[in-house]
Amino acid sequence: MPTQPLPGGFAFEPRKLVANPLAFGKTSRLLPPSPAVSDPEGDPRYAAAMLQHRVVNLVREQLAETGHTLASYIALEPEPVRGLNYSRLVRIQRGETMMQLTDLMHWMATFPAIAPAVAAVVSARGGVRS
Asked: Which pLDDT score, from 0 to 100, does residue 82 have?
Protein backbone atom coordinates (compact mmCIF):
# COMPACT_ATOMS: atom_id res chain seq x y z
CA MET A 1 0.00 0.00 0.00
CA PRO A 2 1.47 3.43 -0.93
CA THR A 3 2.20 5.86 1.86
CA GLN A 4 -0.04 8.88 2.24
CA PRO A 5 1.52 12.26 1.45
CA LEU A 6 2.08 14.70 4.27
CA PRO A 7 -0.50 17.48 4.51
CA GLY A 8 0.31 20.59 2.51
CA GLY A 9 2.37 19.13 -0.31
CA PHE A 10 3.95 21.83 -2.42
CA ALA A 11 1.07 24.29 -2.10
CA PHE A 12 2.56 27.39 -0.50
CA GLU A 13 2.61 31.17 -0.68
CA PRO A 14 5.94 32.02 -2.39
CA ARG A 15 6.43 35.38 -0.69
CA LYS A 16 6.27 33.75 2.76
CA LEU A 17 9.58 32.04 1.98
CA VAL A 18 11.52 35.31 1.71
CA ALA A 19 12.76 37.63 4.44
CA ASN A 20 10.99 40.68 2.96
CA PRO A 21 7.71 39.57 1.37
CA LEU A 22 6.90 43.10 0.18
CA ALA A 23 9.94 43.01 -2.15
CA PHE A 24 8.65 39.94 -4.00
CA GLY A 25 8.56 40.65 -7.75
CA LYS A 26 9.77 44.23 -7.30
CA THR A 27 13.54 43.90 -7.45
CA SER A 28 15.92 42.13 -9.80
CA ARG A 29 17.96 40.81 -6.89
CA LEU A 30 17.32 37.43 -5.39
CA LEU A 31 15.68 37.74 -2.01
CA PRO A 32 17.15 36.23 1.14
CA PRO A 33 15.11 33.38 2.60
CA SER A 34 12.83 33.78 5.57
CA PRO A 35 13.86 32.15 8.84
CA ALA A 36 11.30 29.41 8.02
CA VAL A 37 13.63 28.17 5.24
CA SER A 38 16.27 26.13 7.07
CA ASP A 39 18.17 24.99 3.96
CA PRO A 40 17.86 27.50 1.08
CA GLU A 41 20.12 25.44 -1.20
CA GLY A 42 18.11 22.26 -0.70
CA ASP A 43 14.56 23.60 -0.39
CA PRO A 44 12.72 23.25 -3.72
CA ARG A 45 9.99 25.60 -2.48
CA TYR A 46 12.49 28.43 -1.99
CA ALA A 47 14.02 27.69 -5.42
CA ALA A 48 10.55 27.80 -7.01
CA ALA A 49 9.76 31.04 -5.17
CA MET A 50 12.99 32.60 -6.50
CA LEU A 51 12.18 31.44 -10.03
CA GLN A 52 8.72 32.99 -9.75
CA HIS A 53 10.22 36.18 -8.26
CA ARG A 54 12.61 36.43 -11.20
CA VAL A 55 9.92 35.78 -13.81
CA VAL A 56 7.35 38.21 -12.38
CA ASN A 57 10.01 40.89 -12.04
CA LEU A 58 10.95 40.41 -15.70
CA VAL A 59 7.27 40.53 -16.68
CA ARG A 60 6.89 43.80 -14.76
CA GLU A 61 9.98 45.26 -16.47
CA GLN A 62 8.94 44.05 -19.94
CA LEU A 63 5.45 45.49 -19.51
CA ALA A 64 6.91 48.83 -18.39
CA GLU A 65 9.29 48.90 -21.38
CA THR A 66 6.35 48.41 -23.72
CA GLY A 67 4.34 51.15 -22.00
CA HIS A 68 1.92 48.82 -20.28
CA THR A 69 0.75 47.89 -16.85
CA LEU A 70 -0.63 44.46 -16.05
CA ALA A 71 -4.17 45.87 -16.35
CA SER A 72 -3.56 47.47 -19.75
CA TYR A 73 -1.87 44.31 -21.02
CA ILE A 74 -4.84 42.15 -20.01
CA ALA A 75 -7.20 44.60 -21.73
CA LEU A 76 -5.24 44.08 -24.99
CA GLU A 77 -5.86 40.34 -25.10
CA PRO A 78 -8.47 39.82 -27.85
CA GLU A 79 -9.33 36.34 -26.57
CA PRO A 80 -8.21 36.08 -22.97
CA VAL A 81 -6.45 32.86 -22.07
CA ARG A 82 -8.35 30.92 -19.42
CA GLY A 83 -6.92 31.86 -16.03
CA LEU A 84 -5.14 34.90 -17.43
CA ASN A 85 -7.11 37.50 -15.54
CA TYR A 86 -5.99 40.58 -13.70
CA SER A 87 -6.91 39.43 -10.20
CA ARG A 88 -4.99 36.16 -10.46
CA LEU A 89 -1.97 37.72 -12.17
CA VAL A 90 -1.68 40.39 -9.48
CA ARG A 91 -1.63 37.67 -6.81
CA ILE A 92 1.11 35.86 -8.75
CA GLN A 93 3.09 39.10 -9.12
CA ARG A 94 2.91 39.69 -5.36
CA GLY A 95 3.84 36.09 -4.58
CA GLU A 96 0.49 35.39 -2.93
CA THR A 97 -0.28 32.63 -5.44
CA MET A 98 2.02 30.08 -7.03
CA MET A 99 2.77 30.51 -10.71
CA GLN A 100 1.85 27.48 -12.81
CA LEU A 101 3.73 26.07 -15.78
CA THR A 102 1.00 27.45 -18.05
CA ASP A 103 1.73 30.97 -16.75
CA LEU A 104 5.42 30.46 -17.34
CA MET A 105 4.84 29.24 -20.90
CA HIS A 106 2.56 32.21 -21.62
CA TRP A 107 5.10 34.77 -20.42
CA MET A 108 8.00 33.08 -22.24
CA ALA A 109 5.99 33.19 -25.48
CA THR A 110 5.02 36.82 -24.87
CA PHE A 111 8.44 38.11 -23.81
CA PRO A 112 11.36 36.14 -25.33
CA ALA A 113 13.82 37.58 -22.75
CA ILE A 114 12.18 35.46 -20.05
CA ALA A 115 13.19 32.04 -21.42
CA PRO A 116 16.98 32.60 -21.09
CA ALA A 117 16.48 33.95 -17.56
CA VAL A 118 14.51 30.84 -16.60
CA ALA A 119 17.19 28.63 -18.16
CA ALA A 120 19.89 30.46 -16.17
CA VAL A 121 18.04 29.98 -12.88
CA VAL A 122 17.46 26.27 -13.55
CA SER A 123 21.05 25.80 -14.70
CA ALA A 124 22.40 27.52 -11.58
CA ARG A 125 20.47 25.02 -9.46
CA GLY A 126 22.33 22.19 -11.15
CA GLY A 127 19.33 20.64 -12.82
CA VAL A 128 17.16 18.01 -11.23
CA ARG A 129 18.28 16.50 -7.95
CA SER A 130 17.80 12.79 -7.41
From this structure: 76
